Amino acid sequence: MSVDTASDLYWDPFLLELNTDPYPIFKRLRDEAPLYYNEQHDFYAVSRADDVERAFADSKRLINGRSSVLEFIKANIEMPSGMFIFEDAPRHTKHRGLLSRVFTPKKMLALEPEVRAFCERTLDPLVGSGGFDFVTQYAEIVSSRVIGLLLGIPEADQMAVRAKLDEHVTSGQPRDVQASNFEGAMYAEYIDWRADHPSDDLMTDLLNVEFEDENGETRRLTRQEVLTFTTLLSGAGNDTTAKLIGWVGKLLADHPGERRALVEEPALIPGAVEEVLRYESPGMQNARYSAEDVEIAGGVVPAGNALVCIMASANRDERRFQDPDRFDVRRRPAGIMTFSFGAHFCLGAALARLQGRVATEEVLRRFPEWTVVDDGAVLEPTSTTRGWKHLPVTIP
Ligand code: HEM
Question: Which of 72, 68, 58, 66 minimizes the C-alpha distance to 343?
Fold first, then answer.
């Protein structure tokens, strides 16, 4: 099969109007151009579940070392050492392994009572209010606070970090370098403070962990390295999780029968969160750079090119999921690509799932029904993520 450049089939992640409903074009890509080439921006794209999975699994030839964000690959931006989402083996393995040692499933599960208490404190004042913004008054607050809990940053200060960050992140752009620098400066203050005030949190663990570096020397992380790890965790886990919880608000409002099933049978909630992650992936796509010629999806990506792997399309691939455009909380989907696959599989997936589950349980406990006010709802698609910036809801 040859690469499709037919002029009537056009997709690029920067055409934000396509993102209002990208699924019809994703279906066309899967059916008509499983290996798509975009001449205007010079990149390739795969959209079928098997191909996206195969590309993510092929981390030796399809590398992250030039970034996994298309515009960063094209701009050839240099990434700081330790920003391991943009590194390859062996350096990636070492850095990821180091974070995995302190960012354990046990540590994440231990956060559950605190996450729940925080959801309760956020929702209780809204009971009887008649309505609220599901995103700015709930989803964003929960996701910011959980990162703060993880890192040991006091609550009031964590919200200030988020507000400042939002001023810097322009809609339609990925998180820009300016925002990352700003975030870095905020976290730098806490690293110095934590070094003097150790506690039971991840920042303290990062300051104390001993490891063997690439020169065979056993040492602790430098302040700069702790800062990079902290910025990576916060950058990867904050906005994505807020968008997941925002989609819970939207999808359950759009499917009241499914919502009723969850109220009647809360044991279905973990599976429902998985279905939300499949149906509306907060991250739309991640890119790779071809270190050599790679045969995929019936064609070849020549060495030295960007390959965009569209997770949001893979999750709606009828070759993997039966009746994929139906939202079904009992589906329990296996093989979703939302958290990537292989070497770079999301390190925070368990924490994101935990937050999605607890946030949904606590909402449904108080509000078995809500309606979205379409007038005020604002979708915020950027070239990398897709979700709600505002989702006003009324409660009976
Ligand atoms: C619904 C929420 C989330 C989604 C959709 C998501 C998605 C992703 C994806 C797609 C990747 C892989 C990128 C690639 O392959 O190039 C990734 C990596 C990563 N995520 Fe998440 N993420 C979420 C939440 C979190 C949270 C809560 C944290 C931590 C607090 C986190 C930490 C990370 C880290 C550290 C990596 C880098 C892993 C590596 O490169 O080895 N994520 N995430």
Answer: 58
pTM for this prediction? 0.93
Q: How far is CA 266 from the centre of its chain?
A: 25
Q: For residue 118, which of 161, 163, 155 has the smallest C-alpha distance?
A: 155
Give one DSSP letter per residue of 111-143, joined into a string: THHHHHHHHHHHHGGGTTSSEEETIIIIIHHHH
119-149 per-position pLDDT tens digit = 999 999 999 999 999 999 999 999 999 998 9
Closest approach atom of ligand 1 to CA 343: 41
Q: How many degrees, rounded to 5, is the angle at CA 220 between CA 216 and CA 221?
A: 100
Q: CB neighbours of 57 closer than 8 A, spacing ≥ 6?
A: 341, 342
Handedness of CA 381, 382, 387, 392 (dihedral sign): negative
β-partners of residue 211 are 219
What are 234's two structure tokens? 């916060």
Tokens for 239, please give them: 């906005």
pLDDT for residue 169 is more than 60: no
Helix boundaries (H) for the chain: 23-32, 49-57, 70-75, 91-102, 105-110, 112-123, 140-151, 155-168, 177-196, 202-208, 223-254, 256-264, 269-279, 311-314, 349-366
The dihedral sign for the CA sequence 102, 69, 311, 362: positive
Task: Grade residue 367 by pLDDT with cuts at 50, 70 and 90.
Answer: very high
| Ligand 1 site-directed mutation target among 81, 109, 226, 346, most atoms within 8 Å of CB | 346
Quick check: CB of 206 below 6 Å from ligand 1?
Answer: no
If you write DSSP's letter for every residue of 279-317 in order, what string do you get? HS-SB-EEEEEESS-EEETTEEE-TT-EEEEEHHHHTT-
Nearest to 47 by CA among 318, 294, 346: 318
CA–CA dist 269, 385 (Å, integer): 24
What value does the mean pLDDT take over residues 175-202? 75
| Coil vs helix vs strand at 44 | strand
Whose tokens are 């309505």? That residue is: 131
Asked whether 381 lines ligand 1 (CB < 6 A), one says: no
Q: Which two tokens stand for residue 95?
A: 């850095």
pLDDT tens across 78-123, in order?
Answer: 877 788 999 999 999 999 999 998 888 888 888 999 999 999 999 9
Residue 15 in contact with residue 377, Cβ under 8 Å? no
